[in-house]
Design brief:
It contains twelve helices and 24 strands. The protein is an alpha+beta fold and about 425 residues long. It has four domains: about 90 residues, Rossmann fold, CATH 3.40.50.20; about 60 residues, ATP-grasp fold, A domain (Dna Ligase, domain 1, 2-Layer Sandwich), CATH 3.30.1490.20; about 120 residues, 2-Layer Sandwich (D-amino Acid Aminotransferase, Chain A, domain 1); about 80 residues, Phosphoribosylglycinamide synthetase, C-terminal domain (Glycinamide Ribonucleotide Synthetase, Chain A, domain 4, Alpha-Beta Complex), CATH 3.90.600.10. The strands form six sheets. Strands 12, 15, 18, 20, 23 and 24 form a six-stranded antiparallel β-sheet that branches. The longest helix is centred in the middle third of the chain and has 21 residues. The termini are far apart. The C terminus is likely disordered. The structure holds adenosine monophosphate (AMP) and glycine. Adenosine monophosphate (AMP) binds next to strand 7, strand 8, strand 9 and strand 17.
Length: about 425
Amino acid sequence: MRVLIVGKGGREHVLAWKAKQSKLVTEVFIAPGNIGMKDIGTLVEIREEKIFELAEFAQKNSIDLTIVGPESVLALGIVDEFEKRGLKIFGPTKEAAKIESSKDFAKKLMKKYGVPTGSYQTFDNLLEALKYLDTQTIPIVIKEDGLKAGKGVTVAFSKEEAIEALEIAFDIPNNKVVIEEYLDGFEFSIIALANGETVVPLEIAQDHKRAYDNDLGPNTGGMGVYSPVDKIDEIIVNETVEKILKPMLAGMKQDGIPFKGFLFGGVMLTDSGVKTIEFNARFGDPEAEGILPRLKTDFIQVILDVLENKKTKLEWDERYTVAVVMASKNYPKSSTIGSKIEIPKNLESMVFHMGTRVENDELQTNGGRVLSIVSYGTTLEEAKSKAYNDINRIKCKEMFFRNDIGSKMCYNNKNK
Ligand code: AMP
Ligand code: GLY
């Protein structure tokens, strides 16, 4: 089989790496990919948002299966375009991808189908939003409606902070904002493969969304994960699948927008059970780097089985993984481009590239999140110490990372 991966970050690096390991796969193409993937497959010089060019490439090059990484490309309708041409692709249609591209759309569906989540209201003007805020308790969560790469969310621990977030959000013309009940608890990521009818959940990971140690600083796309998450046992996973993933999938099917692809729930384990923080319409990054290295079953076979509605049993490496993100100094505010990175050859960890480039034979930073360093360990501690040993050997003047990935056993937003 010839497989095309669409995207250029760490998630796509691990998707391509995993596809390459499949017995079914003869060739991997990545569009556009990044320099870290050059030994895995052929890098195709088509930017991911060029969905028509990508479809033409897939047709001309007899691509048997395309897997889409980024939400932005799904929101552009890449799946609709490929399917119109009879090309096999794993991902949701533009309409189904709205569970991520519109917070309001996702919340409405959750409410309609009884999927547990925090109470909320959506606003299109500051005045009404401020009036509603007056009736709510603090902490409170302010979310801009559209795609913000994990950065359009403010968990406000004071009224002033909430007002400021609303003012900033409504400075953007035609913006919509969701004001949402604050959920306290233990946050985890669940990613399942969905075919519109059924879901096959993967193992759980826990992300670290804040930029700095001890969950301080602004929200980011994610600064590191570990997997599995001991606290989230089989009972909680089943509860999540039965109460969150399955009703959402069934509801979407009923509404004529079946969801196919990676269905990603950001979930809070609260004192009153599991509650949805958000849905994403694709694999998480760095969740992919934490979860997929643990999957022993042939990944491409699993996707094909899910697409054909065949029963699949997944086998997992029992070891823990820890994935630590190395990011540009000012991420998420801005990113550094062109700072030299030196990676020793004999690292024990796997290095997935998120935002790198090569200029004048030199590896350089090329984005907000730059590298994802992933280690295995028979204990979480071992995985962690291996990852950090290697990180401390990687040299770059303009990068930072969190020192506490895998250390936080209880997620609690309070008192920030
Ligand atoms: P989101 O982009 O919706 O995943 O939000 C980013 C992060 O903000 C989440 O991963 C949570 O850590 C936090 N967050 C979002 N919504 C809530 C909520 N209702 N209660 C508490 N924390 C939240
Ligand atoms: N790491 C969270 C995300 O991919 O949205």
